[in-house]
Amino acid sequence: MATSSAYLSCPATSATGKKHVFPNGSPGFLVFGGTRLSNRLVTRKSVIRADLDSMVSDMSTNAPKGLFPPEPEHYRGPKLKVAIIGAGLAGMSTAVELLDQGHEVDIYESRTFIGGKVGSFVDRRGNHIEMGLHVFFGCYNNLFRLLKKVGAEKNLLVKEHTHTFVNKGGEIGELDFRFPVGAPLHGINAFLSTNQLKIYDKARNAVALALSPVVRALVDPDGALQQIRDLDNVSFSEWFLSKGGTRASIQRMWDPVAYALGFIDCDNMSARCMLTIFALFATKTEASLLRMLKGSPDVYLSGPIKKYIMDKGGRFHLRWGCREVLYETSSDGSMYVSGLAMSKATQKKIVKADAYVAACDVPGIKRLVPQKWRELEFFDNIYKLVGVPVVTVQLRYNGWVTELQDLERSRQLKRAAGLDNLLYTPDADFSCFADLALASPDDYYIEGQGSLLQCVLTPGDPYMPLSNDEIIKRVTKQGLNT
Ligand SMILES: Cc1cc2nc3c(=O)[nH]c(=O)nc-3n(C[C@H](O)[C@H](O)[C@H](O)COP(=O)(O)OP(=O)(O)OC[C@H]3O[C@@H](n4cnc5c(N)ncnc54)[C@H](O)[C@@H]3O)c2cc1C
């Protein structure tokens, strides 16, 4: 990190672009940091690309055996004053790392609450309202390290190692990874024994996977990931069908999974994205194992991270939005960030720091990148990312709606009953859902009340113009059908 002038870094957020889809997982951020935004940055771009590639490679080859990756090397330079835009996971995890390295950190967040897409707030009636349903895969090593650091690692509840599909009529399909032997055998068994696909589709599915680089990943993870990266411009559907997979497999299994991972279907999701995840599942027994928070994110995730940041002297500035990134141009033509123009309602101020981090969502960063910077391909590429509208609905029931076996149990309100896991469905506009009263009971199980379904509607566009009542009506109807 240079001290003389500012740099700007930008997070990899969960934006998706047609056939340029980033997995939604860890809140890593891309440091495109020379100190100056000049031709030198263009040169450095290849370094950034290489860094990203090695991050992907690390996941399969060098990822530590345990849950927690090693600490980054200790920084020995002078203390910096850093301004971070955005208090989502990317902004907060950046703050944690910077504070640990001895820097001074201020986080500016335009919303009234922290956490960004994984945030939640309490409404006037005391309900915890989440921005979206969150599950944590066993390969989220960086997130686990962050949670351990802030003392929140016990806030994750491990779910059964199976991926459950709820089909029309309440019929359950499983992709069941529970097996006495770990990777890759547990995965092979899961795919061969799944009842979510008919025998013919299952056989064709097996052929496609056998012909995929995932098999190579078992013996040559680096080579396999290079092969997978080359499939970035091919949709998963195109790739899968070309290898003998069937449309029925896509509809019954892979679309719900793709929607849950990236909010788009297999026709739009890149083969690279899906196959990277499959490679992780195939090589790491834990990767496909899901965890969910004990309760709401504000209490069990953002809360402990915020406390850690504040205990270390970091400061949050809520409702302070960055309106403009200010920059200057040196005589040699290179540009550098000189400040941030901030506002909170009618108040305005300029924030100056030694270093700046933009940890915004994609629409947010698109509004902030100065027009001039778009001459650099790296910044211009941001505008190729297309956001995907997603609607999250929380519905409380006076019974247990995922208790599909025992009518009596589903109707009583003395104790929780039903499916305690992330649930996928190919038969509703919400591709994945969970009963939070069971899966994250600490804030969501309420005595005398039943299920609290959280449903993720993807694509969310058709629902955006509808009233809350109409959305509830439609989701409830579909919920009853599945
Ligand atoms: C419904 C849903 C379900 C999801 N489920 C999962 C899951 O199960 N597993 C998983 O790994 N991931 C999941 N994700 C993705 C995950 O939530 C995101 O990848 C992650 O939270 C992104 O964090 P971030 O900090 O990069 O961005 P964000 O969370 O979007 O945070 C960006 C923050 O920057 C602020 N901001 C933007 N512009 C400005 C500005 N100009 N000034 C000040 N502040 C600004 C925003 O208000 C926001 O708080 C899900 C996402 C959604 C929407």
TrEMBL record:
Gene3D superfamilies: FAD/NAD(P)-binding domain. Keywords: Carotenoid biosynthesis, Chloroplast, Chromoplast, Oxidoreductase, Plastid. It is found in: Plastid, Chloroplast; Plastid, Chromoplast. InterPro entries: Amino_oxidase, FAD/NAD-bd_sf, Zeta_caro_desat, Zeta_carotene_desat/Oxidored. Residues 89-478 form the Amine oxidase domain. The keyword Oxidoreductase applies. NCBIfam families: zeta_caro_desat. This is Zeta-carotene desaturase. It comes from Solanum pennellii (Tomato). The lineage of its organism: Eukaryota, Viridiplantae, Streptophyta, Embryophyta, Tracheophyta.
